[in-house]
Amino acid sequence: MACSTGENANKFGLVYQGAVKENVKGKVNIKPVKYEVNGIQVAANLYLPANFDEKKKYAAVTVAHPNGGSKEQVAGLYAQKLAELGYVTVAADARYQGESGGTPRLRDYPENRIEDVSGMVDYLTTLPYVDANRVGSLGICGGGGYTLAAAQQDKRIKAVAALSMFNSGRVRRNGYQDKDVAGMQGRLERAATAHNKELKGEIQYEGFLPPGATDDELRAQMEKLPVNTLYRDGIEYYGLTHKHKNATGSYTTESFMKLMAFDVEDRMDMLTQPLLMLAGSEADSKYMTDDAFKKAVNAKKKELYLVKGASHIRTYWVPEYVKDITAKLKQFFGENLK
User: Fold this and answer.
1) How many C-beta neighbours within 10 Å does residue 323 have?
2) Measuring CA to CA, how many Å separate 183 from each of 176, 177, 189, 206, 209?
3) Secondary structure (DSSP) of 104-163
4) How many Å apart are CA 169 and CA 146, to the nearest integer?
5) What is the pLDDT along the chain (338 residues), one digit of tens a residue?
6) 73 vs 315: CA distance, rounded Å
7) Looking at residue 289, what DSSP letter applies?
8) How far apart are CA 332 and CA 336, in angstroms?
9) Which residues of 275-286 are buried (b: 16+ CB within 10 A; e: fewer)?
10) Please, which of 108, 208, 229, 261 could form a disulfide with 251 given CB 3.0 to 4.6 Å?
């Protein structure tokens, strides 16, 4: 079981193990920042490396959070780990989610998430101490799919990594592990109905975390699911051990209309940058990483790295896996953001 710091115990709201609790001279510091992407305010945490010197030029990395997550969870963890390696990093809440602006809340449009990644690049390049020619991107779970999509079209991203990549469009369209293709049209009909309700001000939501559920109810829900699987571990992570008020695991039902028309695999041949894809060797979501990786035929120095023994969610917090992943990211960005 993970040991969460708890958002109430951390002035920055961070809920991962070893999180920065206060800014101390000579160590990694955090600066909450706000900027706009297409007229909507984004809330982000900027991580500055130890002994930061604003007169220097630093390589930088954007970090995109999973679907239904927030910048204070796994995105913040890896942003901090990369800052400890000497990078300026930024972890931002997607627009319509977390502390960022946008209504209706929890809208999940692929084009928005992709623009959010490029928006982080925009923000970093405005900083005088960031070398605009040495900016990389890391995305986790759904943020991994959207980061790959951003890198396909945004060549300011010089190196791209995806951890436990989740192809949101494929799953919403075909069901998890492609097991509900037959339900595709029904989901589209439900989304169309939800869209009409939105026009009247009624917002319909869905997700894997039952709203208002108690800890005991969440544990009971977990017991119904196989161990070490994405949705069981997701309930544990988001609902119990790393719970954060801004990470509900929900999205608007109407979002299906946009989600189901998206598939990160469709344009993987457009990705030409160095590519690192990481996945747990035991992850039930690994098929998405495998398939996208195969289609990245034009990526330079591409590598698929399996985290031995890890399932999907456990790459987010288990210390031995985090250490392994961080070492691989150190090698990858070190070689490609020189």
Assistant:
1) 11
2) 11, 13, 10, 16, 21
3) STT---HHHHHHHHHHHHHHHHTSTTEEEEEEEEEEETHHHHHHHHHHHH-TT--EEEEE
4) 10
5) 444 445 558 999 999 999 999 999 999 999 999 999 999 999 999 999 999 999 999 999 999 999 999 999 999 999 999 999 999 999 999 999 999 999 999 999 999 999 999 999 999 999 999 999 999 999 999 999 999 999 999 999 999 999 999 999 999 999 999 999 999 999 999 999 999 999 999 999 999 998 889 999 999 999 999 999 999 999 999 999 999 999 999 999 999 999 999 999 999 999 999 999 999 999 999 999 999 999 999 998 999 999 999 999 999 999 999 999 999 999 999 999 99
6) 12
7) H
8) 6
9) bbbbbbebbbbb
10) 108
Structure tokens at 134: 């040495």
Residue whose pair of structure tokens reads 């996945």 in the numeric block: 279
Task: Tell whether pTM > 0.90.
Answer: yes
- Residue 315 tokens read as 């790459």
Terminal alpha carbon distance of the chain = 38
* Selection from 109, 107, 106, 130 nearest residue 120 by Cα: 130
